[in-house]
Specification:
The protein is built from 8 helices and 7 strands; from the N terminus they run H-H-H-E-H-E-H-E-H-E-H-E-H-E-E. By secondary structure, it is of the alpha/beta class. The chain has a 7-stranded mixed sheet with strand order 3-2-1-4-5-7-6, sandwiched between helices. Helix 7 links the parallel strand 4 and strand 5.
């Protein structure tokens, strides 16, 4: 994102809440450490957002989860921890080196039997899932290249069912939704997805602004109608 630093109070409050309420376990801390060691950008969700994903998986009763954008598996682990017995999570990761790190982290968390990671361009993976006629997904988390957000959102609907919950990260992007010139390529994809969320008759959604260690941003939450 941009070279905007969150205020000290935002970060301090988030760190306090993460320590007192969220309480990420060692497998999640390991995922963060291995990501840094592998030279990955620190763009995974914050711990409080990861815990929210876990709770949303549980609250929605999801048994099948689709994730678009794996990175080191931080959000993958959170969501897999929320799955019931017999649940499954399929994650799409573009870079094989990232997928290898994520696979090791998921296995170290004891969740390997629940998680499949497919490498390659996500749009190709999603088309492949449609060709396989896979069982619909109950919950979809989108956190990948933002210029393809509208396409990912469309696939989330097509691979879901009525009632499928969709979460899409980075939907405010330091206010670039109001000033796309700040990041023309990324903002265009985010804006297209926002208009789709508001106008597509297949969806009902909202967007929540957030501040914290990831700066000024937000996430969308939608339901397939």
């Amino acid at each position: 994102m941009f070279e905007h630093q969150p205020t000290a109070r935002w970060s301090a409050v988030e760190d306090f809440l993460s320590a007192v309420v969220v309480r990420a376990d060692n497998s999640l801390k390991r995922a963060l450490t291995t990501a840094l060691e592998a030279g990955m950008p620190p763009i995974e969700v914050a711990p409080n957002a990861g815990k929210l994903l876990k709770l949303l998986v549980q609250l929605s009763g999801a048994r099948r989860v689709l994730e678009i954008g794996t990175l080191a598996g931080f959000s993958t682990i959170w969501m897999a921890q929320g799955l019931p017995d017999g649940g499954r999570l399929l994650s799409c990761e573009y870079l094989p080196e990232h997928a290898r790190v994520a696979r090791a982290n998921v296995d170290a968390a004891g969740l390997g039997h629940l998680v499949e990671i497919r490498t390659g361009r996500a749009l190709e993976t999603l088309r492949g899932l449609a060709d396989e006629d896979v069982e619909p997904f109950d919950f979809v988390f989108i956190d990948a290249d933002k210029e393809n957000n509208p396409h990912y959102l469309d696939w989330a609907i097509r691979l879901g069912r009525p009632g499928t919950a969709i979460v899409m990260d980075n939907m405010v992007w330091e206010g670039a939704v109001l000033d796309p010139a700040l990041d023309p390529v990324t903002a265009r994809g985010i804006l297209s997805a926002l208009h789709m969320l508001g106008q597509d008759p297949r969806l009902d959604g909202t967007v929540i602004q957030t501040v914290g260690t990831k700066g000024w941003d937000g996430f969308a939450l939608a339901r397939v109608l």
